[in-house]
Write a structure and sequence with these properties.
The protein is of the alpha/beta class and 611 residues long. Strand 10, helix 12 and strand 11 form a beta-alpha-beta unit.
Length: 611
């Protein structure tokens, strides 16, 4: 046997029979992508993955970036991605991405190699305590049994593979952790003292798997359907009498929700306040209210809501949260399709675990069976008032920002709303970019995906996440990332993936030399140590990062240059970094000027009775 595939198909080492059975079952259970970090202790699994047809391997040297890359792939594809690393601190570096995956409900299979039990807690090199290493940040942990090539243990490891994939996908989706203790030899050489048993040809399934490539055990996860008629009917009666209602959609990844939600909102005449990560912002519908983060900061003249329905996680906007608190007595219903608790406000009066699309369809059917609204004009006036405030705010913001002589960070998103082709994915960094996306990315023609890591809201791993999303996207669906300079610095190692693989990503780097969001926070009122502790300028020239990883870097100073380079990058290949330099204090002043302009326009509209 002189090839790797021969060793895997006809192993002379029990560890390889065991590992090959596990890897084969992952593939049969639906895993298609594996992110591997190099190491010695993980050799048996790494070689088994390399020899398994039907799997794509992605090599990453940095475990933290590797895990975020896998997170991005799983987020975009909605299928589990496997992560493999060696023992010791290599495994510990997976933690940040697993925290995000757990909170944002992304399925990952975390496979960590470990020392066998006799080498634990005795000073063996590259050995740490990996038992429940990730604590509550994974859905399930198992310290896998030591490899054996008996029928019983091969049945065990095949079952374990199917169970892990199923649990990663079961609602709420999330990461699972399998820890593999492995003894030497770690290469596929025969082990004389542990000869392989002969497979029982009468019952060969443990060795060769189920016939026709079927999984060893098929596991069906029952997802939540629509609520029963006993829940829907009285709720429909409440909505039928509540003329002043709101629908709020926070971050969620189901692109099919829009097609079911829009008819329901139209029937109720309820405006939809759509978070930028709701998968609704890429739609052109007059039901969508998208500048609420600006007008809820100021006097807007809108009446008190009588009923609120919320889908998805809690929206990004703090003014929206404050608005909900102002109307805390208003009944608020939360629809959760993942059997979690996405309700940090403590304002909800009811929570329904249901498939979101099925809920909308069932509710619309129930409402259509009720008599026509007696006060339909009141509903129309309610919706029109929100639409008018939204349109007035948008036009005011757009006109006002045209007069700025310095680059304004929020304008990045008004520009991208017109530049992005249908089918594109826009990934946005945390801190200021996601907040500017909320205020300045308005409805457009042609659907796009808007994605981000809003589970833990961290600034780490964003380049790797975006590259993972790009790797899972179709060739004609470009991926863009808008990111601040500190977030960019945090994950510079992630650019290695673009150097190793033919991935296409456009990065809009907003460089204000520091943490721009702190200039909006109360800390800015204490200037003595502000720059040292919060502003944190680092003064790096990112042109050198582009040279190091083979990325094209273009600095732009005008919006015309911005448009030209974005369009060029979308049509090109590889990674294009478009750097826009801004100044933190000026950016704060420009935001505040816009909010004042919006307030003035709304006050004038109220004075002339146009609202």
């Amino acid at each position: 046997m002189d090839t790797l595939s021969e060793y895997i198909r006809q192993p002379a080492n029990p560890t390889y029979a065991y590992g090959a059975a596990f890897v084969e079952e992952l593939q049969r259970a639906g895993v298609r992508d594996v992110v591997i970090c190099p190491g010695s202790r993980s050799t048996p699994l790494a070689l088994a993955f390399a020899a398994q047809p039907g799997l794509r391997l992605w090599m990453h040297v940095d475990e933290r970036s590797a895990a975020f890359f896998g997170l991005g792939m799983a987020k975009r594809s909605a299928t589990p991605v496997a992560l493999l690393c060696s023992s010791g601190t290599a495994a510990a570096n997976f933690l940040p991405a697993l925290v995000e995956a757990r909170l944002s409900r992304i399925p990952l299979l975390v496979l960590t190699a470990d020392r066998p039990h006799e080498l634990r807690e005795c000073g063996a090199p590259q050995s740490i305590d990996q038992i429940r290493l990730f604590g509550t940040h994974v859905k399930w942990f198992v310290d896998v049994a030591l490899p054996e090539a008996t029928d019983a243990m091969l049945r065990y490891i095949r079952t374990m593979a199917n169970r892990a994939v199923s649990l990663a996908l079961a609602v709420p989706s999330g990461p699972v952790h399998l820890n593999f203790p492995l003894r030497e030899p770690l290469v596929p050489e025969p082990i004389a003292e542990y000869p392989l048993p002969s497979p029982d040809l009468r019952q060969p399934v443990a060795w060769y798997g189920r016939p026709s490539g079927a999984p060893y055990v098929t596991i069906s996860n029952a997802h939540f359907a629509a609520p029963s008629v006993f829940v829907i009917t009285p709720l429909a009666q409440e909505l039928h009498t509540a003329a002043h209602g709101l629908i709020i959609v926070g971050p969620q990844n189901d692109p099919t929700l829009a097609d079911a939600l829009l008819p329901l909102a139209q029937h109720l005449h309820y405006p939809i306040l759509a978070d930028p990560l709701s998968q609704l912002r890429g739609l052109d519908s007059d039901l969508l209210i998208t500048s609420y983060d600006a007008f809820l900061r100021v006097k807007h003249g809108l009446h008190r809501p009588e009923f609120i329905i919320r889908f998805g996680a809690m929206p990004t906007s703090k003014p929206l949260l404050l608005y909900l608190r102002q109307h805390s007595n208003c009944p608020q219903l939360v629809i959760d399709g993942q059997n979690g608790w996405e309700e940090p406000t403590q304002l909800a009066s009811a929570l329904i675990y249901s498939d979101q699309v099925a809920f909308c369809q069932s509710m619309l059917t129930a409402l259509q069976e009720l008599p026509l609204y007696r006060a339909n004009g009141e509903r129309e006036e309610w919706l029109e008032a929100w639409q008018h405030v939204d349109q007035t705010t948008q036009s005011t913001l757009f006109d006002a920002m045209q007069h700025f002589t310095e680059p304004f960070e929020g304008r990045v998103f008004t520009e991208l709303a017109t530049l992005l082709p249908t089918g594109a994915t826009l990934v946005v960094g945390n801190s200021m970019p996601v907040r500017d996306l909320d205020t300045f990315f308005w409805p457009r023609e042609g659907r796009v995906r808007l994605m981000g890591n809003r589970g833990a809201n961290g600034i780490d791993g964003l380049i790797s996440t975006a590259l993972g999303i790009s790797a899972a996207a179709k060739p004609d669906e470009p991926t863009l990332l808008v990111i601040g300079d500190l977030s960019f610095y945090h994950d510079l190692n992630g650019l290695l993936a673009a150097h190793l693989y033919p991935l296409h990503l456009t990065v809009i780097l907003i460089n204000n030399d520091g943490g721009g969001i702190f200039s909006f926070l109360p800390q800015a009122a204490y200037p003595t140590h502000f720059e040292q502790l919060f502003g944190t300028p680092i003064g790096l020239d990112y042109q050198h990062a582009g040279d190091l990883y083979g990325c094209q870097v273009q600095r732009v100073q005008t919006w015309e240059q911005f448009r030209v380079h974005v369009q060029h990058a979308l049509q090109g290949e590889g990674v294009h970094i478009i750097e826009l330099g801004t100044e933190r204090q000026s950016n704060v002043l420009m935001h505040r000027q816009l909010w004042r302009a919006a307030e003035q326009s709304l006050l004038e509209a109220q004075a002339t009775s146009t609202l």
